[in-house]
Amino acid sequence: MQTVSVAVIPGDGIGIETVQAARRLLDRLAELDGGIKFAYTEFPWGCAYYTQHGEMAPKDFLSTLRSFETIMLGAVGYPGVPDHVSLWGLLLPIRRGFEQYVNMRPVRILRGVTSPLRGRNPGDVNFVVIRENTEGEYSSMGGRLHTGFPHEVVVQNTVFTRLGTERVIRYAYRLAAKAPRKRLCGATKSNGINWAMPFWDEVFNQIGETEFPEVERWLTHIDALAANFVLKPDVYDVVVASNLFGDILTDLGGAVMGSIGMAPSANINPERKYPSMFEPVHGSAPDIAGKGIANPVGQIWSSSMMLDHLGRQDLGEAVMTAVEDVLEEGRVRTPDLGGRSTTNEMVDAIIARLEARFR
Amino acid sequence: MQTVSVAVIPGDGIGIETVQAARRLLDRLAELDGGIKFAYTEFPWGCAYYTQHGEMAPKDFLSTLRSFETIMLGAVGYPGVPDHVSLWGLLLPIRRGFEQYVNMRPVRILRGVTSPLRGRNPGDVNFVVIRENTEGEYSSMGGRLHTGFPHEVVVQNTVFTRLGTERVIRYAYRLAAKAPRKRLCGATKSNGINWAMPFWDEVFNQIGETEFPEVERWLTHIDALAANFVLKPDVYDVVVASNLFGDILTDLGGAVMGSIGMAPSANINPERKYPSMFEPVHGSAPDIAGKGIANPVGQIWSSSMMLDHLGRQDLGEAVMTAVEDVLEEGRVRTPDLGGRSTTNEMVDAIIARLEARFR
Ligand SMILES: CC(C)[C@H](C(=O)O)[C@@H](O)C(=O)O
Ligand SMILES: CC(C)[C@H](C(=O)O)[C@@H](O)C(=O)O
Question: According to its UniProt record, which cofactors does this protein need (chains A, B) (predicted)?
């Protein structure tokens, strides 16, 4: 019996609802399988905690989390707490503190889902974005001078290190080398951002040339690449992008998939020195929080990636097959997909499919 | 008779073809109208010039351009010349040197065009992106330390000044105040980029609150905003964005419009102290350059914006009506729109419409 210790941070808004949903599914799956068990410890950190304690989590939260095998996160952020406080107080320090330098975000039109793109059907779009997750444009380095005066100047440093750039690009090449068409596209903007991005391009080409000559590689400026996600999303296997560019591309990818409520992500520390973290791409969605109608697929798909990471690809696949079966049947759908079902009804339907499979 | 002095920089690749096309159209229009005349001076600057002279343009090119009323630019950049050389040697210095701090980029599905978005038809999507055009992420400030060593660090500074931020945001509010629904959306990323973007948000809210209380305003993170361009592009009147975010959003907008070959832009110095510059959003497109099949609409639409800027909105509108009539008739279309026509055939068709109108 494999017992997995899971730190659970539901966070804010719909995060609380989708995490609850995914836990229910994981527990039933574990029962059905019989070979795995999840030992959860839940941490009530986030914006509610902040309003009581003046911080998003206790000061030692990283050392608390460190002993867990894996982390499940819902969503962080809520009106009343400035975003740059809520995120820099919890989510971003975890990504950095645990060297989760790979943020893996699949873009795939699931069976049964209508993409907002004309003529793009399930199976047509299926690739992975590897987002750098620890440095780049989210450096937290910068400052303001002459605050409030007409001559005020604000500087933010984008910082790329060779180590940080090489490790994520190398990871992306490894993945691309296993992809059907062995293709890797790098997101750049070396025409406008004249120090950081030419460096990125250099590393991208160096590693490709010397270590992965069998991978077809090309660089595309982020503006054109965003347009291509709409115009020809079928040409990609793996896309590697800096922190900010990956952030933008994956929300856009979520849109192409039919709803950002379905996009998953895995924050991975490939060396497994620290726990990895699994969270949907969507935010806390204050507008629908508390209504029980959030789409649980983003969280569930993220949990399926967690199962992959734990060496149980068989279970990860079983979960996604069940999800796609439910979507394809089309009877149970949350409002973002044009239906009227609740989060719980959706999870029930997915669990029923899993039960049928294990029966 | 209004005689307009136009500095023409065809630039590289298809820029040469689309500028030629737009000039032909403007000349015929001037003949038909009888009240305006264009006096062109063409400058052969760009990557071909660079291969001969080791620079994109003569050192004094800004003072040469300065005496013109307006500038028409095709596209800059070509394989063999690194992008950060070609752009920083011509396009970007013009935007900066002439304080063209407003980059206005309409996003509209033209009559007769099929958007790649399911169920979005002409008339459904019609808004303007105001992109900051002189500072921000394209600062050119930064550097590299320990080049090539494992401990290399590369820094790029994003720089926002209060002056630069206020002036573009104020311009956007003015435009929004005249829009049908009086709406302004600001693109931000204050949750991840923790110095520059909270400052941007502050200015956005300050100006809205004190100077434009009648305008409905809201901020959206760039990741969600990119997704919204696909999921609900109908909610926008005016979007204001930093240099990089505006760049990404407008290529995406071009995709939503059906082809980036059609997206126009105006680099405006609102104070009219310096010439403004009109150029399509698309690049030099080496893959189709020289074939005579580039879509001229981006360049022609940009010329229509030039006519607006010169106080001849009547002519600007006449041009766009002719363009839309041709697209709607559907007989003449360049390959990017699924047709087989040449650039010249398309221009001929548009000119024929204009002639019919003036007859
Ligand atoms: C060529 C490049 C520097 C330019 C930009 O990013 O500004 C282009 O993409 C544009 O949108 O005008
Ligand atoms: C909340 C925010 C800081 C975060 C990010 O930009 O990384 C989110 O958008 C994401 O994509 O995980």
Answer: Mn(2+); Mg(2+)
Q: pLDDT of B79-108, one tens digit each?
A: 889 887 888 999 999 999 999 999 999 999
Taking CA A287 as the corner, what is the angle to CA B238 and CA B127, rounded to the nearest 5 degrees? 15
pLDDT value of position A75: 96
Distance of CA B228 to the CA centre of its chain: 21
| pTM for the model | 0.97
* Ligand 2 site, residue B328, Cβ cutoff 6 A: no
Q: Which among B247, B248, B267, B277 is the best mutation to test ligand 1's pocket, defined by most ligand atoms within 8 Å of the CB? A: B247
| Cα A89–chain centre separation | 18
Q: Which residues pair with B266 in a beta bridge?
A: B104, B278
For chain B positions 21-40, those within 8 Å of chain A (CB to CB) are none
Instruction: Say whether residue B2 is in contact with chain A using an 8 A CB cutoff.
Output: no
Nearest of B353, B109, B87 to residue B234 by alpha carbon: B109
Mean pLDDT of all residues belonging to chain B? 96
Q: Rg of chain A over CA atoms, in angstroms? A: 20
Q: What's the gap in Å between B192 CA and the centre of ligand 2?
A: 7
Average pLDDT, chain A: 96
Looking at residue B233, the DSSP 8-state letter turns out to be G
- Summarised one tens digit per residue, pLDDT across range B139-165 is 899 999 999 999 999 999 999 999 999
Give the per-residue pLDDT at A79. 87
Residue count of chain A: 359
Q: Give the whole-angstrom CA distance, residue B158 versus residue B139.
A: 6
